[in-house]
Amino acid sequence: MYKVTVLDEAKEMLKNHLKFLAKVSPNASRKLNKQFNDVLKILAQTPLTYPLWLTDFELTKSYRRFIFGKRYLAIYTVEDNRVIVAYVLDCRMNNVELFDNSDNE
Fold first, then answer.
1. Which of 34, 51, 87, 93 is in the most buried spot, having the most CB atoms within 10 Å?
2. Percent residues over pLDDT 90 in the chain
3. Measured between alpha carbons, how far is 54 from 3 in angstroms, rounded to an integer?
4. 22 pLDDT exceeds 50?
5. pTM
6. Burial (0-12, 13-18, 19+ Cβ within 10 Å), 72
């Protein structure tokens, strides 16, 4: 069994997506939250089920991804017996700035 941790930044991202969706449909917001929590239960059992997240960005860790609610992407890493969910993204948005380190060089 793996310990699943959702980082504060990822929690905030999810909360913002849920709040936005709740303005349109509270039921859809609850359903999305349930889908996310259902996947967390799967991650606790078999975190390597989901594919590696392949990207052009140079990352310091190996990340995996899962899609839920048709258009939301959660990015996580597995370290020893821990699963760490780092990001929860809306795939309809441009999220490049989260990963692009070219300005820091």
1. 87
2. 60
3. 24
4. yes
5. 0.79
6. buried
pLDDT at 35: 95
Using the Cα atoms of residue 59, residue 60, residue 66 and residue 67 in order, give the sign of their dihedral.
negative
Query: For tokens 């929590």, what's the residue?
Result: 37
The amino acid present at 48, given as its one-letter code, is L
Decide if domain 3-93 falls under CATH 3.20.20.60: no
Cα gap 40→67, rounded to integer Å: 12
Rounded distance between C-alpha atoms, residue 95 and residue 3, angstroms? 27
Domain extent listing, the chain: 3-93
Quote the radius of gyration of the chain (alpha carbons, Å). 14
